Amino acid sequence: MELSLVEYGFKKVEEAEVMLPGCSCLLKKQTLYMNRAVCVVELSQLPENFSSFIFQLRRKVAFKIRFIPIFYVVGIQVIIVCPNIASAVIDPSKYVAKFDNQWAIIQSLFLVDPMSKTFVQARSWGQFVTGEYQESISRQLSLNYMLVGI
């Protein structure tokens, strides 16, 4: 799955799959005032420990985009495409940031099920008002998948 967020200044990170197995697309936007990343991961099956998987993914994405901790926190949008993820009853809101750790946070999580052609999404606190990237991702996903609730 490829995403286009060029209109927002995102650029593709080359060879992301080397450090991030299953990563089909990694985008970053870094300015003097902002660090953002969008990571698309395609899995053939759900990891046994989804919490650990998300934690490791967050850390690896931060390092892959060459995050510099003395500047701003890196806000990460994660899209996971996995067969039957919808029937796994994973609540994406459990995995988005509850507070700012001043390092790397998951700002939004999209769980896409190619089998049922559906997706669910969750956003962290501030992203309901200022979530233009999440809106763009949701619109792009809506072209091929139906948004459903948990």
Explain what you see.
It is built from four helices and seven strands, in the order βαββαβββααβ. With 150 residues, the chain is of the alpha/beta class. The chain has one domain (6-147). The chain has a seven-stranded mixed sheet.
Topology of this protein?
Layout lengths: L10 E2 L3 H4 L3 E8 L4 E8 L7 H15 L9 E8 L22 E10 L4 E6 L3 H4 L1 H11 L3 E2 L3
Parallel strand pairs: 3-4, 4-5, 6-7
Antiparallel strand pairs: 1-2, 2-3, 5-6
Helix and strand content put the structural class at: alpha/beta
Number of helices: 4
Tell me the span between the first and last alpha carbons.
23 Å
- Rg over C-alpha atoms, rounded to the nearest angstrom: 14 Å
Task: Briefly characterize the structure.
With 150 residues, this protein is of the alpha/beta class. The chain is built from 4 helices and 7 strands, in the order βαββαβββααβ. It has one domain.
Question: What attributes characterize this protein structure?
Answer:
150 residues; alpha/beta; 4 helices; 7 strands; 23% helix
